[in-house]
């Protein structure tokens, strides 16, 4: 064995007792560091990083930065200690496993985000927003309309994108009415999270459960009614506090860009392809999503090649009809670049997810998730454990909580896997910092939708959370 350098010896000195403890208490290729300096150091690093994540709104520090740094530090500690024990292959294998988990989800989410960005660029969301503003609805009608649309759009477009779209509508019509903007944003967050709970495309947590193979695409449907209840219960109560007065809003015409509806069709085809890869061939769904990216690339190629002909055709029609407005609208026939859409993906979210996966994977290798799993899913009733997962999701964010559950891989019935999917998805609505939708809206409606403004309605949201769990236990008891 090579002689260690002085700095390495100094660094490993606090961990020597750990190595001895581990080698005495566990098998040759598994080590337990939960009550050692190594484990405590990793926990402190992760705790500090996640504290910074939860303070994102106040620090104006993107949430990916602290978890990326924490992931690197945790794996440096793991690597040095496992190398000292002569078991570096164990750490390498765990690292590669976590990287593979992340790679599958990264590519899947990247394609989905690219399609959503493409629809946004073709002005589909602007057109929907313009339609709602131009209809002259009163505040209470807009409260229900934005909530219901959030619930039904989020299963396809994901809860974060949906929440931002509806928030833009609320800000446009709400204006200086801070009370309406705050309560409408709370309603949107609850609706978007509830709508995303019964679809693999609605939230990262449901996507993780689907990709892990615990629940198939069609098996999410029993969560539909509990998700509806989760949204309806608080929405009915909150709507009583929304006035029926008419907002002052200016309607503006939105011209859709060429190919807008065809991109929606391609996205639906991409979803069907991903489901088919998983259900028929038993391949990871990401294979179908990457194939769907090719659909979008070829369509972008078609739009560019036919651009001159399309411009000439519309120009001829406009001149023949002496329509100057149509001539000005020719900017709607702009070329389409799919790689520019890729660059507009939510990279902060994707990198944050990498940091979470690697941090939780490191803590799992150190033995912490085994301890938590033993307590929650062996000593407790799994139903109560899954209820607690939802409450933790409101405090810590549902992504690391769900990834931790999947890493523990407890023996659960289909009913309990659906329950933890439901609670992790909708539990984040209890606090504004509990979900990506809530955090994003605090930024988009800064000063109008706040942590404490959301906190005031937490008892009402908790009522919906409890009602949805009771509904699932009653309606789907045959799955437990």
Task: Tell me what you see in this structure.
The protein is mainly alpha-helical. Helices cover 73% and strands 0% of the residues. Helix 6 (88-121) packs antiparallel against helix 13 and helix 11 (204-211) packs parallel to helix 21. The radius of gyration is 25 Å and the shape is globular. The relative contact order is 0.13. Residues 1-29 have low confidence and may be disordered. Its main location: membrane. InterPro entries: Cit_transptr-like_dom, NhaD-like. Keywords: Antiport, Ion transport, Membrane, Signal, Sodium, Sodium transport, Transmembrane, Transmembrane helix, Transport.
Secondary-structure topology with pairs:
Layout (H helix, E strand, L loop, with lengths): L5 H7 L3 H10 L11 H18 L1 H4 L4 H21 L3 H34 L2 H11 L4 H19 L1 H16 L3 H19 L7 H8 L12 H16 L20 H20 L6 H20 L1 H14 L3 H5 L9 H6 L3 H19 L2 H12 L2 H15 L1 H11 L5 H14 L8 H9 L6 H5 L2 H18 L5
Helix pairs in contact: 3-5, 5-6, 5-18, 6-13, 6-14, 6-18, 7-9, 8-9, 8-10, 8-12, 9-10, 9-23, 10-12, 11-21, 12-25, 13-14, 18-21, 19-21, 20-21, 20-22, 21-22, 22-25
GO molecular function: antiporter activity
Pfam family, one: CitMHS
Protein name: Na(+)/H(+) antiporter NhaD
CA radius of gyration: 25 Å
- Oligomeric state of the chains in view: single chain
Number of strands: 0
Largest sheet, strands/sense/barrel: none
- Cα distance spanning the termini: 54 Å
Helix content: over 70%
H-E order: HHHHHHHHHHHHHHHHHHHHHHHHH
- Which spans of ≥5 residues are poorly predicted at pLDDT below 50? 1-29
Q: How large is the share of residues in beta strands? A: under 5%
Shape: globular
Mean pLDDT: 80
Structural class: mainly alpha
């Amino acid at each position: 064995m090579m002689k260690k350098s002085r700095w390495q010896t100094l660094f490993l000195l606090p961990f020597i007792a750990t190595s001895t403890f581990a080698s005495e208490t566990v098998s040759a290729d598994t080590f337990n560091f939960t009550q050692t300096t190594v484990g405590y150091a990793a926990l402190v690093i992760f705790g500090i990083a996640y504290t910074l994540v939860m303070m994102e709104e106040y620090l104006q520090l993107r949430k990916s930065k602290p978890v990326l740094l924490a992931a690197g530090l945790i794996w440096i500690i793991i690597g040095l200690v496992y190398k000292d024990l002569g078991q570096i292959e164990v750490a390498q294998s765990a690292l590669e496993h976590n990287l593979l988990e992340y790679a599958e989800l990264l590519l899947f989410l990247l394609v989905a985000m690219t399609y959503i960005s493409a629809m946004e660029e073709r002005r589909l969301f602007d057109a929907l927003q313009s339609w709602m503003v131009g209809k002259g609805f009163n505040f209470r009608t807009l409260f229900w309309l934005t909530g219901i649309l959030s619930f039904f759009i989020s299963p396809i477009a994901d809860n974060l994108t949906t929440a931002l779209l509806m928030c833009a509508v609320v800000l446009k019509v709400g204006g200086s009415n801070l009370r309406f903007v705050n309560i409408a944003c709370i309603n949107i967050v609850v609706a978007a999270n509830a709508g995303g709970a019964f679809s693999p495309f609605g939230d990262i947590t449901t996507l993780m459960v689907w990709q892990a193979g615990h629940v198939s695409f069609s098996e999410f449907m029993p969560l539909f009614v509990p998700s509806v209840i989760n949204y309806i219960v608080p929405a009915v109560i909150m709507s009583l506090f929304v006035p029926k007065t008419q907002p002052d809003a200016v309607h503006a015409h939105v011209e859709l860009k060429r190919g807008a509806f065809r991109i929606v069709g391609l996205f639906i085809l991409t979803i069907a392809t991903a489901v088919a890869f998983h259900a028929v061939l038993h391949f990871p769904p990401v294979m179908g999503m990457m194939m769907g990216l090719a659909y979008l690339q070829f369509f972008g190629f078609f739009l560019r090649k036919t651009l001159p002909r399309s411009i000439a055709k519309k120009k001829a029609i406009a001149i023949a009809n002496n329509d100057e407005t149509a001539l000005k609208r020719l900017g709607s026939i702009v070329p389409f670049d799919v790689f520019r859409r890729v660059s507009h993906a939510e990279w902060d979210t994707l990198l944050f997810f990498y940091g979470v996966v690697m941090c939780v994977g490191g803590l799992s290798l150190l033995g912490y998730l085994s301890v938590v799993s033993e307590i929650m899913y062996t000593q407790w009733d799994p139903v109560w454990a899954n209820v607690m997962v939802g409450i933790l999701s409101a405090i810590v964010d549902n992504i690391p909580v769900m990834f931790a559950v999947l890493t523990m891989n407890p023996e659960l019935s289909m009913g309990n896997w659906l329950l933890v999917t439901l609670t992790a998805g909708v539990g984040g609505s209890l606090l504004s910092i509990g979900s990506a939708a809530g955090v994003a809206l605090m930024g988009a409606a800064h000063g109008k939708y706040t942590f404490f403004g959301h906190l005031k309605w937490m008892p009402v949201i908790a009522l919906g959370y409890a009602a949805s769990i009771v509904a699932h236990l009653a309606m789907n008891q045959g799955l437990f």
